[in-house]
Amino acid sequence: MTNSVAKLELFFEMLVVERGVAKNTLESYRRDLLALSQYLKSDNLINATTDDLKAYLSSLHADGLSARSVARHISSIKQFYRFLVLEGIISQDPTTKISTPRQAKNLPKILTEIDIGALLSTAAENDSPEGCRLTALLETLYATGLRVSELMTLTHEAFSYETDTLIVKGKGSKERIVPLGQHARNALKKYIGVRPHFLAAQKSSKWLFPSSSAEGHLTRQRFGQLLKQLAIDAGLDPSKISPHVVRHAFATHLLSHGADLISVQKMLGHSDISTTQIYTHVLQDKLQDLVMNHHPLGKK
User: Fold this and answer.
1) Is 147 in the active site?
2) I need a surface site. Which of 63, 84, 136, 209 has the fewest CB within 10 A?
3) Does residue 133 have an active-site annotation?
């Protein structure tokens, strides 16, 4: 193992042990930094200069990577070299003069309440075990705004008949409790009755949504496929439907009905409220109307 590879492994170990980063986040760091290591060749990673790193980033632009992807690479690189400085492995950080380009925030795709209603009613028409599962998944996703990875990895114990909440393990293995509406509770109760259908040869599974996949639970890719087909059946454009778009609908519809931003932040599991604030951009007309009609100086 070369010195550079050894330092990379130390960095990845720190991310897991000290920061508790999620598996997908860790893999993202690994891909970015191994790509940099390959570009620099031999054992130049530790001794890389600012010019070396700028040349690498220029190569990413030349390869046609989007500004968002390049920004992610920059973040990974900065984190790694800061780690090397803190560990005393290098004395100067070569990334201090490398800035992350400002990016325009992409507004989330919007599903109207009518669209969501069409998806839910279409799913409910299928009374087979697969239909019950899809209804439970969609009702739960729209009721809670979970990340699709959180929904797929819900354990059987996360849902209880006695409570109106779900216990969710989010990023960094942090647990949070999210409220669960009556429609979602009813859909989950009905699904639990047909859940053994998805256990196949297994006699039991810790997952709420078990399957025959290598992971042992329904995969995000499969759920995405099921949603696309459901959109077609409901007469909607499948290109506009995904689990993440339903999560956006959850947040947008809550805010449009008067929910406060901090409550939505907590339910979404955002660590920084600035991440949640993107949803206010899709509610500008409502916010303007709120000021004009309710502020003492807003009325003509």
Assistant:
1) yes
2) 63
3) no
